[in-house]
Design a protein that fits this description.
binds adenosine-5'-diphosphate; alpha+beta; 6-stranded mixed beta sheet; binds magnesium ion; 3 domains
Length: about 725
């Protein structure tokens, strides 16, 4: 057998027996490595504590003196954890996280050593970050970038480093990261949701967005994963014949977790616990060797950081267990891909979930207000929602016969559909006392407090209401949650702002009572938003046709989809909500186009290399064996040989056909790549990569996968699907 593949397989067989670590009581060490409220109270002076809390709650500035005190206390706390370094931890536009470690260690003037960390180092740093994508914002020497402490996400200790969550911005003020727009969007939704929530409870002074993500991933034996150049370089398999057994028996989903995986999960979860990531659920997913992890939901900013941190930790912990985590949305053809459902809701500073019905009609009217406004927001900005989850890797899910479709729609369940139907008939203008009573008792009053059992049935919907939250399912498993959370909170903020204006106008002009005005506006919104509601099968051909009739966009590829990000409407929206200005949006658009082209370019190169350097030589090798065999048969059987060697001859011919198929398509792909590469305009370039280069992947793969089935298993150089997917 090919040395590389056989060595990898041998290595997996030799894995020593799995040691499943002992699980500890979680509440005893939860957040032990976080500089949270409890630690702040213990380590900070009263004055410093107050300063930080004010900054967290009201966004007030922290002055230098306080910053110095906080830094010193943070350092003292960190030293008790054996920490030697600190870093400003941030989330650049690569989608990942970034860190540069500096030691606390200093030499004083007299040469004596000590550990130092001051307010200056805590508050602001200037990373030499010229290599981070900026989309042209940081082209000039003057436009340098700096990281700034975000006190709303607590510092934490990972390994021997104190990590300080920061935002990353240019000196000219533009955001260079994923967190800055998120924080601005959360501010916008707080402002406008609070104003609307005051209709129902005047004492509300803050609204928080919550996020509970569900992270799907694959785990593959490390030796097997590293034996495949495509997995190493692109995070997915570019070729490989499907395994005879895949997920068709549905025997993996919720099945018992394999021992080695369990030991990985226990260590991962224990790391998460220390870092205050409240992981709660783990289970096998649908595809073989696919799993899911979900935490208890948290305030959105913190949840975004926790997911980014988790993705980083997962890789490190997996390595300890001789495993490799694949976060790619579609690592294997023919079986399910991975997503990251973003469960989202809004709640007040009194802890009331605005997307949850309650016991009283008033509480239910509040629920309907936020519910209908969210639906309307999605309808208004469906193309933008799609755009903000677009990536080269997520294209394999959205619009590729994979869950969910590229068309945005909202699923709400039969019960709420009928409630909205009744609200549509509310009288225009003033309501009679009878009508009001009827509405309150028979429509609003009838919404059950618990809707959970009546919804969540439709797994094909990209945006579903699941009882007390909306679940955005189109988010890719590799994505940084900041992006989907930024768009969702921004469009809902804008929608709530418009709603308040409309309601206030009716109260002023038509002298309607507050609840009458709310009913009137909601009625119009429900009528306006009908087209975004869909309860049927999101994967069906009929829905594609129906959605087209409804005027919903269906952008199947990233270059197409992300145009919506720089549409006039999007620019107006983000500017009005003060989330991103036009320059920032255009920069992001440019970065994403470039990232798209680069990803497809790399995949094309890797596929070409593997096809030419691994597959073809193996095919030729095997063909030679067959030729030798045929020659031998001729020698032995003379005239009769042709009928005896018919299959071998046929196979020899077929192998030649596939070899030529690979060669021709690879050459043609290289030519298209050359054309794309000399295109200056990033949008055109991405479109060329999408429409001209990428289609060759399937063609090349087809011939390679056929050869995999024909060629002696002993000779095949690449670890096969069945070996990767069923080794545990
Ligand atoms: P599933 O979608 O797999 O059936 P659940 O619906 O129970 O699982 O929960 C999925 C995720 O939704 C979890 O991360 C959970 O914390 C989160 N979640 C639950 N309630 C809310 C809420 N009100 N707001 C935001 N996220 C929530
Ligand atoms: Mg879910």
């Amino acid at each position: 057998m090919s040395t590389f593949r056989s060595r990898a397989l041998q290595e997996t067989l030799n894995r020593s027996s799995v040691h499943v670590p002992e699980a500890k009581i979680r509440s005893e060490y939860f957040a032990s490595h976080v500089f949270n409220d409890k630690n702040m109270r213990q380590y900070l002076t009263k004055e410093a504590y107050k300063g930080v809390v004010n900054a967290i709650k009201h966004g007030s500035r922290i002055d230098r003196k306080i910053a110095d005190q906080v830094a010193t206390s943070m350092k003292n706390w960190a030293l008790t954890k054996g920490v030697t370094h600190y870093t400003h931890w941030f989330q650049p536009l690569t989608g990942g996280t970034a860190e540069k470690h500096d030691a606390f260690f200093e030499l004083l003037d007299d040469g004596s050593p000590m550990e130092k960390f001051g307010g200056n180092e805590l508050v602001q740093q200037e990373p030499d970050a010229s290599s981070f994508p900026s989309g042209g914002i940081r082209n000039t020497f003057e436009a340098r970038g700096y990281t700034a402490w975000d006190p709303t996400s607590p510092a934490f200790v990972y390994g021997t480093t104190l990590c300080i969550p920061t935002i990353f911005v240019a000196y000219t003020g533009e955001a260079l990261d994923n967190k800055t727009p998120l924080l601005r969007a959360l501010q916008a939704v707080d402002k406008h949701a609070t104003a609307v929530a005051k209709y129902f409870d005047k004492t509300v002074s803050k609204v928080n967005a919550s996020l509970g993500w569900e992270q799907e991933y694959f785990l593959i034996d490390k030796a097997l994963a590293y034996s495949r150049p495509d997995i190493v370089l692109t995070g997915r398999t570019l070729l490989g014949h499907s395994s005879a057994k895949g997920q068709q028996l549905d025997d993996h989903y919720f099945g018992s977790i394999p021992q080695r995986v369990l030991s990985f999960m226990i260590e991962l979860e224990s790391e998460c616990m220390k870092l205050g990531i409240p992981v709660k659920t783990r289970h096998n997913e649908v595809a073989p060797n696919q799993f899911e992890l979900a935490p208890i939901y948290e305030e959105a900013n913190l949840a975004v950081d926790h997911n980014a941190l988790l993705m980083d930790i997962m890789g490190k912990v997996a390595s300890n267990h001789q495993l490799k985590v694949l976060l790619h949305e579609k690592p294997f053809a023919g079986i399910n891909g991975s997503g990251k459902h973003n469960n989202w809701s809004l709640s007040t500073d009194h802890g009331v979930n605005l997307l949850s019905p309650g016991k009283t009609p008033m509480r239910n009217l509040q629920f309907l207000t936020f519910f209908v406004n969210t639906i309307k927001a999605i309808h208004q900005y469906e193309a933008l929602m799609r755009a903000e989850v677009a990536s080269a890797s997520n294209d394999h899910r959205l619009g590729a016969n994979e869950a969910p479709p590229a068309i945005m729609s909202v699923f709400i369940g039969a019960q709420l559909t009928s409630v909205l139907g009744e609200l549509e008939n509310v009288t225009d203008g003033k309501l009679s006392p009878e009508e009001k009573t009827d509405l309150k008792l028979n429509v609003v009053g009838k919404i059950p407090e618990i809707l959970l059992d009546n919804t969540d049935r439709n797994r094909t919907s990209p945006f579903a209401f699941t009882g007390n939250k909306f679940e955005f399912r189109a988010v890719g498993s590799m994505a940084n949650c900041a992006t989907p959370m930024t768009v969702l909170n921004t469009i809902v903020a804008k929608q709530l702002k418009d709603f308040k204006v409309a309601v206030d106008k009716l109260i002023d002009k038509k002298e309607l009572k507050k609840d009458e005005a709310i009913f009137n506006v909601l009625r119009e919104y429900i009528k306006d938003s009908r087209d975004i509601l869909f309860e049927g099968n999101g994967y069906s051909k009929e829905w594609e046709e129906e959605a087209a009739r409804r005027g919903l966009s269906n952008n199947k590829t990233t270059p197409e989809a992300i145009r919506a990000k720089v549409s006039e409407r999007a620019i107006g929206l983000y500017a009005e909500m003060e989330v991103m200005n036009e320059k920032e949006l255009r920069a992001r658009h440019e970065i994403e186009l470039e990232a798209y082209s680069l990803r497809i370019q790399i995949e094309g190169r890797v596929l070409g290399d593997v096809a030419l350097n691994h597959v073809i030589p193996t095919a030729v090798n095997y063909q030679n064996t067959l030729i030798k065999n045929v020659k031998g048969l001729k020698e032995v059987f003379g005239k009769e040989f042709e009928s005896i060697a018919r299959e071998q001859l046929d196979l020899i011919k077929k192998i030649s056909e596939h070899i030529s198929g690979i060669t021709q398509n690879t050459n043609a792909m290289v030519e298209e790549r050359k054309k794309a590469n000399v295109t200056r305009d990033e949008a055109k370039k991405a479109t060329l990569y999408c429409e001209k280069v990428k289609p060759y992947f399937e063609k090349i793969r087809y011939h390679c996968d056929k050869l995999e089935l024909m060629i002696d298993d002993e000779l095949w150089p690449l670890v096969k699907y069945r070996e990767m997917l069923f080794t545990r």
